Amino acid sequence: MSDRGGAPPQPAAPAAVPLARLLALAYRALIDNLHERLRTRGWRDVRPSYGYVLLACRDGRPTSSEVAVTLGISKQAAAKLCDGMVEAGLLRRGASDADARAKPLRLTPRGRRLLAVVEEVYRELEGEWAAVIGQAEVDALRAGLGQVLRSTYGESLPPIRPV
Hints:
The protein is mainly alpha-helical and about 160 residues long. Helices cover about 60% and strands about 5% of the residues. It has helices spanning about 20-40, 50-60, 65-70, 75-85, 110-135, 135-155, and strands spanning about 90-95, 105. It has a two-stranded antiparallel ribbon with strand order 1-2.
């Protein structure tokens, strides 16, 4: 009780967790769970950064220099990353018709299998979210996020890249 005889001040209601923090935590949880499940399925040589390159190669035939631009890293770092993926049998270097020096990257059958397993794991993880909040909520979340992102980027979403 206060000295004035009134009710004691009430504690402030907890502030809502910012959406940016929730999205960042959700992304981190999805990526961590993805890589844990990949390891249990025998994909022990896969690093998180590989996913960005695999997606770029699924959607086109980038060179290491283009991977550097997409990921926002140096050409040397991109070349080293791509070399590791070639050594892991996920990518192969091809020849360019337009520039003999350019070596476009292509997915190997192993790289395509990895992408298929990743999509399977993501479906499992989304199913687990649906078990918690309901399939309708997961569908609404996807639709809402898609709508916000299309309003920002247009119909063609940009490639994802590490932060």
